[in-house]
Amino acid sequence: MPKITYIDPSGATHDVDAEVGATVMETAIRNGVPGIEAECGGACACATCHVYVDEAWREKVGPPSPMEEDMLDFGFDVRPNSRLSCQIKVSDELDGLVVSTPERQA
Ligand code: FES
């Protein structure tokens, strides 16, 4: 089972087991990880599941789609490594993925 580490703005880490095929957003919600709201339920329509992908993982995770990029415009404190976590699918290749949550969601 791939592991994902979420780091909140205070620096606290939350290590969780993720299911292959679930999204990074769903994995956070299921495990009670704070800082991800996911108001639209994963439809790429709210930008409240915004995370920063750890630099070491950026290439593997890949860039946002054009639709995701448009939605990210509504995110808070968007950076080059910003992604919407509902648009990142967990795979074995992402075992060990590290993402951080922003100070607040949109
Ligand atoms: S949950 Fe709404 S955009 Fe990701």
Summarize the structure.
It is built from three helices and five strands.
Radius of gyration: 12 Å
The major sheet is characterized as: 5 strands, mixed
Q: Roughly how much helix do the residues carry, as a percent range?
A: 10-25%
- The overall pLDDT, averaged over residues, is 97
Small molecules bound in the structure, each named once: FE2/S2 (inorganic) cluster
According to DSSP, the number of beta strands is 5
User: What are the low-pLDDT stretches, counting only 5+ consecutive residues below 50?
Assistant: none
Distance between the termini: 31 Å
Secondary structure topology:
Layout: E1 3-7, E2 13-17, H1 24-30, E3 50-53, H2 58-61, H3 66-72, E4 82-84, E5 97-100
Parallel strand pairs: 1-5
Antiparallel strand pairs: 1-2, 3-4, 3-5
The structure holds FE2/S2 (inorganic) cluster.
Descriptive tags:
3 helices, globular, alpha+beta, binds FE2/S2 (inorganic) cluster, 106 residues, five-stranded mixed sheet, single chain
Describe the structure.
This protein is an alpha+beta fold and 106 residues long. The protein is built from 3 helices and 5 strands. Strands 2-1-5-3-4 form a 5-stranded mixed sheet. The longest helix has 7 residues, at 24-30. It is globular and about 30 Å long. The N and C termini lie far apart (31 Å). The mean pLDDT is 97. The chain binds FE2/S2 (inorganic) cluster. FE2/S2 (inorganic) cluster binds at residues 25, 38-40, 42-49, 71, 84, 86.
